Structures are given as C-alpha cells and as structure tokens.
TrEMBL record:
Binds 1 Mg(2+) ion per monomer. Catalyzes the reduction of dTDP-6-deoxy-L-lyxo-4-hexulose to yield dTDP-L-rhamnose. This is dTDP-4-dehydrorhamnose reductase. It catalyses: dTDP-beta-L-rhamnose + NADP(+) = dTDP-4-dehydro-beta-L-rhamnose + NADPH + H(+). Pathway: Carbohydrate biosynthesis; dTDP-L-rhamnose biosynthesis. The gene is rfbD. It is an enzyme of class 1 (oxidoreductase). It comes from Thermithiobacillus plumbiphilus. Coiled coil: none annotated.
Length: 292
C-alpha cells in the first residue's frame, strides 16, 4: 500500500514512520517538502505519488500562539485539511485526518462521544473543527477522522519534556489540577492509526487516546515518579496543584476533555495501553537517547 504522510517531522508524523507496517511504501513529507496550506502544491504531490492512503499528521499546533495568528491556524488546520481532502477525492485515495479534543468546550463531566456537539473555546480548536467539517463535506463523510488528545513523544516539544527540564532546573513547580484529559503517546496513537488503516471500511469520526484519566498535575507527578525510578532525574521537587485561573494562558482550554473510545476499541480491534504504561515507555526511550 502506498501511503503519503504529511507533517512528517512532527511528533505523530515521526511515530507513524517509526511504526509503519513493512508492507507500506511511504512518502513522508514535512512542512518544507509539502506545505498543505498550498493547494497548488498538494494536488501535484498527491497525483505524482498516487497513494492509496493519505494520513494527515500536519497541523498548526501552537495553541496559545494561534490566538494572535488565527489566519495561519486556519490556513493549515482548515484550508490545509480541505486541500488534502480535495486531492484525496480527486485521486481516489483514502484520507485519515487527525483532530483534537479541543473541538469540545469541556463543559461535560463524562467522556465525549464522537457525535457530541462541538464548541471550541479558542482559535486552534475552531480551526481544527473547521478542518473536520471540510474533510467530511469534501469527502462526503468517506474520510476517517481520529480525534486524540494530550500527545507527547520522545521526539518534539511537549509537556513531558518541558516538565523534565523544569524538574531538573527548579526547586518547586506548580501545575494545573482542574483540567482533566488523557495523556497519549504519539507511538501508541500511531499504532492505532496503522490498525485503522488496515480496516478499509472505517469512516467517520472516531476517538483514540491511551486509556485512563488524569489532570496535568497528576501527569506531572507521574512524570517525576517514573523519571526518578529510571534515573532520568536525580531528586524529587515539591509539585503543587493550582487552578487554571492561577495560570492564565492566551487560549482557553477545555476543563474536561476525556474522549469516549468505546467504538474505536471495538472497530479498530485494539486494546489501549494505560497512559502511565505508555509514559514509562517514552521515558525509557528518552533515557536510551540520553545514554546513547
Ligand atoms: N500535540 C497534542 O497535544 C495534540 C493533541 C490533540 C490533537 N493533536 C493533533 O494531532 C496531530 C499531530 O500533532 P503533533 O502532536 O504531531 O504536532 P506537532 O509535533 O506540532 O507536528 C505537527 C507538524 O505539522 C507540521 N506543519 C505545520 N504547518 C504545516 C503546513 N502548512 N504544511 C505541512 N506541515 C505543517 C509541523 O511542521 P513545522 O514544525 O515545520 O511547522 C509539524 O512537524 C495534529 O492534527 C494535532 O492537531 C495533537
């Protein structure tokens, strides 16, 4: 199977390449080799390679910066997604598009179902939400859209690596405890996407994250505990829970964004890892990188 991956140098783009089935012929393009916001670049790239599957892992992911760069966020997350959907439609390729828990407002207190009402709180979420809608419309709901959340990896910039740096530099930390979601390893997400790729009949919106639930505070505590156990950190520092209102950010974030995965567990035929187990694997990878 010929597979075109966009956003190849991102956390997910890299993880997709690392875990691709041997039977796939990959063309993995990063933002320099294919800017998905440029329709004139997307069309020829797709028709030249003629993939049977396109996985869109490219996105404008700077949630706070998006508040002052709405045009850029829209160009990549909405127009870029639409460009890929049109190219897929025109060439007969299947499209797997990745989206986010930030399409929801977080006012629920039970896991979000794929069909729940979207109501993004910020520019990033709104641009991703529009991307989903465009993909659905252009492909007449034939595309597979997978929403995920709180993604991290050994590769790239993310909460885990920021915490490890701050835990090594600082005497203490304060982390928000009133935003609840599910940390998700890019590696386990990539495995779920490849599993979904092997099931050609899947279409519509699905949710996938690692299993379990945490606040950013819980996540930070787990990072410290696991990193100490692996020898990635030398000493424990006090970590204090704070409220979102005590840590203002330019973009508002959903207070609760746990995604219901019942359908994907059944249809992908894949059991998820608990987020803490997946975290241990990524920290182990960081340790191996450090010791190499
Ligand atoms: N990270 C999270 O916590 C999270 C949570 C929920 C959902 N998601 C979704 O998961 C997917 C993968 O995210 P990720 O964590 O892998 O993000 P990431 O590490 O920021 O990777 C995104 C990649 O997209 C590339 N990109 C940006 N603009 C582009 C453009 N115009 N054309 C082509 N490529 C472009 C970036 O390249 P440059 O760096 O060169 O700009 C980057 O390599 C995205 O759809 C994201 O919305 C992520």
């Amino acid at each position: 199977m010929k597979v075109l991956i966009t956003g190849a140098s991102g956390q997910l783009g890299q993880a997709l390449q690392d875990s691709a089935p041997g039977s796939c012929e990959l063309l993995a393009l990063d933002s320099r080799t294919l800017d998905i916001s440029q329709a004139d670049a997307v069309r020829p790239a797709v028709s030249r390679f003629a993939p049977s599957l396109i996985i869109n892992a490219a996105a404008y992911t700077k949630v706070d910066q998006a508040e002052t760069e709405p045009g850029r966020a829209h160009a990549v997350n909405a127009e870029g997604a639409a460009n890929l959907a049109r190219a897929a439609q025109g060439s007969g390729a299947r499209l797997i598009h990745i989206s986010t828990d930030f399409v929801f407002d977080g006012n629920k207190s039970t896991p979000y179902q794929p069909a729940d009402q979207t109501n993004p709180l910020g520019v990033y979420g709104a641009s991703k939400c529009e991307g989903e809608q465009q993909v659905q419309e252009i492909t007449q709901s034939q595309a597979l859209i997978i929403r995920t959340a709180w993604v991290y990896a050994a590769h790239g910039n993310n909460f885990v690596k920021t915490m490890l740096r701050l835990m090594a530099e600082r005497e203490q930390l304060a982390v928000v405890s009133d935003q609840i979601g599910t940390p998700t390893s890019a590696h386990t997400l990539a495995q779920a996407i490849w599993r979904a790729a092997s099931k050609p009949d899947l279409r519509g919106i699905y949710h996938w994250t690692d299993s379990g639930v945490a606040s950013w505070y819980d996540f930070a505590l787990a990072i410290q505990e696991e990193a100490l156990a692996l020898g990635l950190l030398d000493k424990a520092i006090p970590i204090r829970p704070i409220r979102t209102q005590d840590y203002p950010t330019p973009a508002k974030r959903p207070a609760y964004s746990v995604l219901d995965k019942t359908q994907s567990w059944a249809d992908f035929d894949l059991a998820p890892l608990h987020w803490r187990v997946a975290l241990r694997q990524v920290l182990q990878e960081l340790k191996e990188q450090r010791d190499a």
